[in-house]
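Structure ticket #2291
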Amino acid sequence: MPSSDGGWHSAANAIGVDLPSSLASPVTLTKGGSSIGFTLAGGAGAGSATGTVASYSAALPSTAATYTVTGSGVKERLSLASVTTPSSFAWSLHLSSGLSAQLVGGVVEIINASGPVATIGAPTVTDASGVSGPAGWQLSGATLTLPLDPAWLTDPGRAFPVIVDPSVTYLGPTQGCTLDAAHPTNTYCDTTDLGVGASGGVAQRSVLYYPGFTDGTLPVDAVIQGAEMDLPVDTQTGSVTVNAYGLTRGQLERHLGQLQRHQQLDHRRWGLCHHADWPTMGSPPPTSG
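Resolution: structure written out below.
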């Protein structure tokens, strides 16, 4: 819905998202008494909104930006039209009192005195033919920078547009992370989009984590009589079969190392993603769906 400053406000769930009329102003997420804002350095141009998506066609030179409100935060998407686009992007972070940012394992954690409350996931950079490029955050004070590899960006074979795709996610009762063979040491945790199969020829697998037994949401002696998982497919080529495997925390720790402090997964072993590895972990037969 329109907001008083000419932008748009979404409050369809527990997270409020304010999208500005121009990217000269910050995108802001609020939950409870906390807020997280970020301003794209040099951002400009008026936006337009349709449903849960705000679009800015002239955010930066030869660069368009879209922001999609999700159930757990907001997904930012920069579309680079040609080699004349910037090769580095920066955001100023605006955090409410009691919050600070730190870089852990390729992910920006927004933390308070009790621990992480939100994450800015490891970014992905992909050209129009599905080829992924190197990408990683740099954090200095309240400035978050994403430098792109100029050699990769200006390669004569590069297919434009190139998509830069980070997300801001408030941590919720279910945490999902994508494992990507091309970036085996990065963490891609976003409860809205999970990668399975292949993207641009790069194999992907995903892990869902339910922290209810460790965060007090569920009693330690609770017995789960049944559960249902609904994962709608967003993009596919041909038929899709999704196999679900059960993993205990002990299995994850043996194969992935210790869980990170906020109990998302530490993706340091891409080998876990290979289908042949699952039976060796003592998992029950997969359930297809």
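Closing remark: The chain has three helices and 24 strands.
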